[in-house]
Every structure is written in structure tokens, then in C-alpha cells.
Amino acid sequence: MNSDMLGGIIRAFFPPVLAYTVGAGLLPAGDYGAVVAGVVSLATAIWSVHTNKTGKTIK
Q: Is the pTM of this model over 0.85?
């Protein structure tokens, strides 16, 4: 599985889950954007750590 496939899965999975949580009253509608921003930030941090491991530096 490459990064494009993983990105597609995330883009297809998270919007319905977040819409369900808003509809069920578990998440206030105004917080939807904050949750999406948090998920994107977390994914970016994980990707950065993964791609910048020791030993992958140019000498």
C-alpha cells in the first residue's frame, strides 16, 4: 500500500465518521473544522517522523 492509497482511504473514511458523530450529537457542529484540522496535523506529524528517521539522511 502506497501513500496515495492510504490518503484515498482516509479521505473516504473520515468525512462519514465525522458526519455521524455530529448527527448523533457526540461532536458539536462548530467543532467539525477543528477535528479535521487536528487529524491533518497529526497525520502530517506522523508522516514527518516516518520519513525523517535516522539513517535516511544524505551524506
A: no
